[in-house]
Amino acid sequence: AGAGSGPVPGDGAGPPATERVLFPPTFSVSEIKNKQRRHFMFLRWKQQQRKEKLALKKKRRKEREALGDKAPPKAVPKTIENQRVYDETTVDPNDEEVAFDEATDEFAPYFNRQTVPKILITTSDRPRGRTVRFCEQLATVIPNSHVYYRRGLALKRIIPQCIARDFTDLIVINEDRKIPNGLVLSHLPDGPTAHFRMSSVRLRKEIKRKGKEPTEHVPEVILNNFTTRLGHSIGRMFAALFPHDPQFIGRQVATFHNQRDYIFFRFHRYIFKSEKKVGIQELGPRFTLKLRSLQKGTFDSKFGEYEWIHKRREMDTSRRKFHL
């Protein structure tokens, strides 16, 4: 059929232009054989979906404004987080058993202010430039931390030396192909030891709109969504890295945010714009951690007793089940 030979809107031969549907109800873009045409039609379909969603959103907003106080409460969207499978190890803050465990665990001297954190940060053998810079920047985030390089020493020989020099924690940054990809955190002298996979590392110069260099003030520590017994232990390990009494005058805050068992680390500074408005300025570095194992005692890869090991095929059976 030539141009103009189709039905004219409103002449009775076809539906009006406002009622015409872009695609038939049974249409599938995957049925189009031509790749370029298929891609073009897919983009048109996505554009139509966005327009319909935006129009529905505007319609609902106008209805709510018209109803005023009589408007029904907003529907809570379904997310993976709020549909989480219940975990029987979820911590109740008022549980006496949890309170007793916290009073007698390895981190109790820190929370009772009997010990002051002193951190040793080291690397795998022969670290490259990016890993070295990351360790140096991490040392500016964690107060009273010292960076030393391995020089071929095994961790089993490093740990007794750390204990003899009154270090409370050991952090080991591992790398692969010049990129930091692992973090081992061992609490001294009696453990536990956590092994994390590290990803999405961003140094300060790679962060857009970053602030000035951090000061030497002790930062606040924020721990989000560590709700299970395992998550509680990991959160206490992170908290024990920082001195217990933050210096609020420095306006610096270190955040460990757990979401779907991924731990996102951010380091910010508060910016007071007025008496009511407060902004934040990221200082860096930033990285993401995923717990691989939690081991009793200090690092021992051969004979160590593990409290928890991440087994993908057994544990990752549901997207809505989380362990931290």
UniProtKB/TrEMBL annotation:
Q: Where is the composition biased (Basic and acidic residues)?
A: 63-72
| UniProt keyword terms in alphabetical order | Ribosome biogenesis, rRNA processing
Entry's Gene Ontology BP terms: maturation of 5.8S rRNA; maturation of LSU-rRNA
- Name the major location: nucleus
State its location(s).
Nucleus, Nucleolus
Keyword rRNA processing in annotation: yes
- SUPFAM superfamilies named in the record: Class II aaRS ABD-related (SSF52954)
| Entry GO terms, CC | nucleolus; preribosome, large subunit precursor
Q: Which stretches of sequence are listed as region Disordered?
A: 1-21, 49-75
Where is the Brix domain positioned along the sequence? 117-300
Q: Name one GO molecular function term.
A: rRNA primary transcript binding
Instruction: Report what the protein is called.
Output: Ribosome production factor 1
Question: To which species is this protein native?
Answer: Vidua chalybeata
